[in-house]
Amino acid sequence: MRTPVYLDHHATTPVDPAVIEIMNTVLREHFGNPGSAHAFGWAAAAVVDEARGHLAELLGCEPREIVFTAGATEADNLALKGLANLHPRPGRIVTSNLEHDAVARPLADLAQRGWEVVEISCGRDGLLCIDDLSVAVTPETALVSVLAAQNEIGTLQPWAEIGALCRERGVFFHTDAAQAVGRVPLDVRVDQIDLLSLSGHKFYGPKGIGALYVRAGRGGVRLRGMITGGGQERNLRSGTLNVPGIAGLGEAARLALTRRDSDAIRLREMGKALLGYIVSNLSGTRLNGASEPRLPGSLNLSFDGVDAAGLLRELPVLALSTGSACSAGDGQPSRVLQALGLSERESASSLRICLGRNNTDEEAVFAAERIVEAVRKLRGEREAG
Question: Which of 61, 129, 326, 354 is catalytic?
Answer without folding.
Answer: 326
